[in-house]
Specification:
By secondary structure, the protein is α+β, with helices and mostly antiparallel strands. Among the domains are: 87 residues, Intracellular proteinase inhibitor BsuPI (Immunoglobulin-like, Sandwich); 80 residues, Immunoglobulin-like (Sandwich), CATH 2.60.40. Helix content is 15%, strand content 46%. It contains one helix and 15 strands; from the N terminus they run αβββββββββββββββ. Strands 3, 4, 5 and 7 form a four-stranded antiparallel sheet that branches. A hairpin with a 2-residue loop joins strand 9 and strand 10.
């Protein structure tokens, strides 16, 4: 009788141990599933935007790296906000060298903060890998346009300069509205003979209302010297 009792006790203990292990594994799987669900996901565009037309694509290369300029036009009568843009850069053999769909990528490297109705915008990504051609897909806006007026600020004309990092342009941005801007990205393209020969991006981390003009510096991929430089800076905060 004692031997049977001990055997039964061992069996019951073993049963409890097995159940506890299964419970721990299930809990771990649940935690992992929640973490995966909340983790940043690669950008996907299930439905291309027919209101935004891709006019042209320019690939640039120099000793400092590579960049792409995508010329787009908002052909709708609506202001489009937070428009996703995906690029697939390929080499001469058709092999992909760079995609900007990576989870957690900086917002401005795969989105356009705002495009006004009828506006032609020159989006720049200066962190690509070298290629010979690129496929561009523009998605639906991820936010609604504001009901009120857009924020107003003044970008001063760019002044040519250079330092140990190479040629650049510099200037200031003055906030004329009461809406502070955060991480304002300035997109610059340089044209010579009707052709885009250089492009770059700059950033102002905080552009506050009533403060002094904030300086900007934009370095280029390509050579902007002697070219006409255009700067666009869509607002990042609308209200």
């Amino acid at each position: 009788m004692r031997r049977c009792f001990l055997a039964l006790g061992l069996a019951v203990t073993a049963g409890f141990t097995l159940t506890a292990c299964q419970s721990t594994q299930d809990k771990a799987a649940e935690i992992q599933a929640r973490a995966q669900a909340s983790a940043p996901k690669p950008l996907v565009i299930p439905k291309p935007n027919k209101d935004v037309k891709v006019l042209d694509t320019t690939l640039l290369h120099d000793q400092n790296g590579d960049a792409i300029v995508v010329s787009l036009k908002n052909e709708s009568n609506q202001t489009l906000v937070n428009v996703p843009i995906l690029i697939d850069v390929k080499d001469a053999k058709g092999t992909t060298t760079y995609k900007n769909d990576t989870a957690g990528l900086d917002f401005a490297l795969n989105h356009i903060a705002l495009i006004k109705p009828g506006e032609t915008f020159y989006w720049v990504n200066d962190q690509i890998e070298q290629g010979t051609k690129a496929k561009v897909t523009v998605g639906q806006p991820e936010a609604h346009a504001p009901k009120g007026p857009l924020p107003e600020y003044v970008v001063s004309p760019p002044r040519a300069a250079s330092d140990f990092s190479g040629p650049k342009v510099r200037g200031t941005v003055t906030n004329k509205s009461k809406i502070d801007q955060s991480h304002l990205i300035l997109f610059a393209v340089a044209r010579s003979g009707g052709k885009i020969v250089a492009a770059g991006r700059g950033q102002i981390k905080a552009l506050k209302y009533g403060s002094r003009p904030s300086p900007y510096n934009i370095y280029f991929i390509g050579d902007p010297r002697g070219a006409d430089v255009q700067i666009q800076a869509p607002p990042t905060t609308l209200q």
